[in-house]
Design goal:
The chain is an all-alpha fold and 112 residues long. The chain has one domain. Helix 1 runs antiparallel to helix 4. It is elongated. It starts with a helix and ends with a helix. 12% of the residues are buried.
Amino acid sequence: MISGDALLLALFVVAVVNVSRYVSTLRTLLAVMRECDPLLYQQVDGRGFFSSQGNVSKQIRLFHYIRSEQYQNHHDPVFMQKCVKVRKLFILASSYLMLFIVSIFVVAYLGI
């Protein structure tokens, strides 16, 4: 039988890998956005997006832009593909993080 520590470690590694894939894809989306849509890049604070002084309200604007699929009316197919990939990876990474958090409580409650 698998131990609880091994299960948590495996889920943690999978969650970290998926979050790093999401952040990497988000960085490439911002690079593509800088070239194909400079106005949107400014609106989401692309230059300071990952800095400690980043404007959270502008970052949330990008989240809502991707969540509501407003990119489907964009003229650049590469940009649209990156937005789709960011959206899918966000869903995947957040799902794995939720699964990891739930599994922590399950392992602690069951004493595995």
